[in-house]
Amino acid sequence: MLVILRIFIGLVLLVSGFDKIISPYQNFLYVIQAYQMFPDWLEKFVAICVPWVELMVGIFVILGLWFNWSLKGALLLFTCFIVIVGQALLRHLPLDQCGCFGSAIHIPVQHIIVFDSLMLLSIFWLMRHPFKAKKLSLDQYLDLPNPRR
Amino acid sequence: MALSKQKITVLIIALAVGVVVVTKLILSGSSGTVDPVAARTKGPKQAKVNIVEFIDFECPACAYGAKQLKEYTDRYPDDIRVQVKYYPLMNIHHHALQVASYAECVARQGKFWPFFDMLMPQQSQWSPLINADGVFDEMAKGAGVDMNKLKSCLSSEDVTTTIMSEKALGRSLGVQSTPTYFINDQMVVGTKSLEEELNKYFPKISK
To answer: Which pLDDT band, with edges at 50, 70 and 90, does A42 fall under?
Structure first.
């Protein structure tokens, strides 16, 4: 169960990051501008860097490589998403879609904050049960004292 | 052993970057080019700033963008060339395809810009209507369109084909939302970036 949850969380980040990276960064820049949260100089940086961070953290969580660190990375990402979407909802910004998954999936902001919160709770759950969550992970294999390799 | 884990980490990162690069290369290989000559164009050919806009006439940001762009084209008519291409978002705007059809039929009679200049500032009035055909008819009349020709054009399948092929072109160029502009081939999405890009060529217009 925890392994499936770990893979799901990783897949969410991987799909989200990959879709944004393969399309021109200007599309994600437009999404970031709509949240009206960052200064101009930071918007472009976030638009280019965040999808790569999502992709890498997603891959590492799925594979269970550097698991504790990658899970902390996922925790940080989802916390940031909740803060960004939350402030947009509080300010009643006119956002139809969250823009979180590029062109792949369209989710209203009211729904995505619930989804992100569930993801955050799931990450806390995985952190509480690291041994079960690390089953079928690269860490489990690579950190063995004398693996037959 | 720690080294092995580090080597595997580097390998996975390199593999991920490789997959992304190959996907981007494949996608860029299948992308089209923006046609510089079309009916919905204004401004001189030799203009220093060439703008191709992918638009959904019902999108509020597009109405704002049209207003912004008009301020620049009015002030620098010899320096800016604008071409409008269709990118109707039918899943979120229920007039999107119909109004694009009107625009195309009006354009075929050479009256696109007068129609456009009425359509966009009044978007907030016609957008909530269940059926806005009456409003579009009035605007077309105001633009000086032959209404009989317009009606027969609206029932032509060729119009929808033109609109959807331009949307497909937009998609192949990486367009996902509206308004998306290509300013001297540089992709710009949204009105904030539009203003920033235009201010690279022209002094800021104070409001």
So the answer is: very high
* B5 and B75 fall within a common domain: no
Q: With CB atoms and an 8 Å threshold, state whether A30 touches B190.
A: yes
Q: Check: CB of residue B204 under 8 Å from CB of residue B74.
A: no
Name the residue among B5, B9, B189 with its Cβ closest to that of A30.
B189
Q: Could you tell me if residue B36 is inside a domain?
A: no
Which of B11-20, B26-35, B39-48 shows the lowest per-residue confidence on average (mean pLDDT)?
B26-35
Q: Does A140 touch chain B (CB under 8 A)?
A: no
Question: Token pair for residue A84?
Answer: 């960004």
Give the domain range for residue B113.
41-201
Average pLDDT (A120-140) is 90
The mean predicted confidence, pLDDT, of chain A is 89
Give chain B's domain count.
2
Percent of chain B with pLDDT over 90: 75
Whether residue B12 and residue A102 make contact (CB cut-off 8 A), yes or no, is no
The domain ranges of chain A are 2-132
pLDDT in tens, A112-125: 999 999 999 999 99
- How many CB atoms are closer than 10 A to CB A97? 17
The 3-class SS string of B143-169 reads CCCCHHHHHHHHCCHHHHHHHHHHHHH
Cα–chain center distance at A24: 19
